[in-house]
């Protein structure tokens, strides 16, 4: 009998590693080069323009400009408060089962959203043509004396904002489940108390984000108040340019102030939205400060000697 020799199994050859070759996107590089070229051309055009950029930092802290920035912030806050309060009332009226109040709220929203803000400001400023005298019984005066540029700007901006805020509030209220209202009524709560204690707090998660956008928009829309001679930022910048003859430079100064104001309130809007989102999600996104601290910790851990990267 022939001796059989046990042969060792042949070693298995590992499969060749697959090398993924990324697809080249030449269009992205072309688009990026075109965008950079356009930005360079715009920068060259502004650098060669007949603009004295050196005086812009000096006028940023000018007393007249600071006064205009303060008036812009002041009228924006007051108009937003007026629009928010009246917007809540209009939203409740719009959702009411009373056909009269619902129709009045609908007509208000239709009219103020359908006409330009500038036209509304001019109408309020010239309202003395319709009502020459203001007679409230306990107070009587000429309308020209009552309707100051400040009051015309406040009414024009605030009443227009109320039309938009009513739709935002109405959408927030309708986002709350009807079972919440039924449960509140079952506990003996009145309609007003249910709205104040149950519905509105839950609706804030939907109301806050667009409200922040509306306020930031209000900061810029307040520039239209120059048409009624209110001393906001554009009006004060125009006054300075009429004496310094630096027209475009003052527009740059006003733009910087608008960017600063909107940036500050954008950060506040972010934290306010984050606060009202606590009940709707388990993991809140990190704040910019938390993200910065995390990046610093990662940088310190990689920069230590002996750490394998």
Question: What's this entry about, in short?
Answer:
Residues 69-269 form the ABC transmembrane type-1 domain. This protein has 309 residues and is mainly α.
The poorly predicted ranges are none
Helix percent reads: 55-70%
The quaternary structure here is single chain
* The top level CATH class name: Mainly Alpha
The spatial strand order of the largest sheet comes to: 1-2
Order of helices and strands: HHHHHEEHHHHHHH
Q: What is the helix tally? A: 12
CATH homologous superfamily name?
MetI-like
Number of strands: 2
Beta content comes to under 5%
**Which fold name fills CATH's third level, the topology?**
MetI-like fold
Please tell me the overall pLDDT: 83
Domain module count? 1
CATH architecture: Orthogonal Bundle
Distance from N terminus to C terminus (CA atoms, Å) equals 64 Å
Question: Structural class of the helix and strand makeup?
Answer: mainly alpha
Q: Which sheet architecture does the biggest sheet show?
A: 2 strands, antiparallel
Nearest-angstrom radius of gyration? Answer: 31 Å
* Overall outline: flat
Verbal overview:
- The chain is mainly alpha-helical.
- It has a single domain (57-279), classed as MetI-like fold (Orthogonal Bundle).
- Helices cover 69% and strands 2% of the residues.
- It has helices at residues 26-47, 56-60, 63-94, 99-114, 117-125, 143-146, 149-174, 178-186, 191-221, 233-244, 247-276, 288-303, and strands at residues 133-135, 140-142.
- A two-stranded antiparallel ribbon has the order 1-2.
- Strand 1 and strand 2 form a beta hairpin.
- Helix 3 (63-94) packs antiparallel against helix 9 (191-221) and helix 10 packs antiparallel against helix 11 (247-276).
- The longest helix is centred in the first third of the chain and has 32 residues, at 63-94.
- It is flat.
- This is ABC transporter permease.
- Residues 69-269 form the ABC transmembrane type-1 domain.
- The chain crosses the membrane at residues 29-49, 69-93, 105-127, 250-272.
């Amino acid at each position: 009998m022939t001796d059989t020799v046990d042969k060792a199994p042949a070693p298995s050859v590992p499969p060749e590693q697959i090398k993924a070759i990324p697809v080249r996107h030449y269009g992205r590089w072309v688009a990026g080069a075109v965008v950079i070229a356009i930005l360079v051309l715009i920068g060259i055009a502004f650098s060669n323009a007949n603009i004295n950029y050196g005086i812009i930092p000096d006028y940023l802290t000018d007393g007249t400009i600071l006064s205009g920035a303060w008036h812009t912030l002041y009228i924006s806050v007051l108009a937003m408060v007026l629009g928010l309060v009246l917007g809540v009332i209009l939203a409740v009226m719009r959702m009411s089962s009373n056909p009269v109040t619902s129709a009045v709220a609908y007509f208000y929203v239709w009219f103020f959203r359908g006409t330009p803000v500038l036209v509304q400001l001019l109408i309020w400023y010239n309202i003395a043509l319709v009502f020459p005298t203001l007679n409230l019984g306990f107070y009587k005066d000429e309308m020209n004396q009552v309707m100051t540029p400040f009051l015309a700007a406040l009414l024009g901006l605030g009443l227009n904002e109320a039309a938009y805020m009513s739709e935002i509030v109405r959408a927030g209220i309708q986002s709350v489940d009807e079972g919440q209202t039924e449960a509140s009524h079952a506990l003996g709560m009145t309609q007003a108390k249910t709205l104040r204690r149950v519905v509105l707090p839950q609706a804030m998660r939907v109301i806050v984000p667009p409200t922040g956008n509306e306020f930031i928009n209000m900061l810029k829309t307040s520039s239209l108040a120059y048409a009624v001679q209110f001393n906001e930022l554009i009006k004060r910048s125009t006054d300075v340019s009429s004496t310094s003859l630096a027209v475009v430079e003052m527009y740059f100064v006003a733009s910087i102030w608008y960017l600063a104001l909107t940036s500050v309130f954008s950060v506040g809007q972010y934290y306010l939205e984050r606060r009202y989102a606590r009940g709707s999600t388990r993991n809140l996104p990190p704040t910019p400060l938390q993200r910065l601290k995390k990046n610093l910790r990662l940088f310190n851990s990689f920069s230590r000697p002996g750490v394998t990267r």
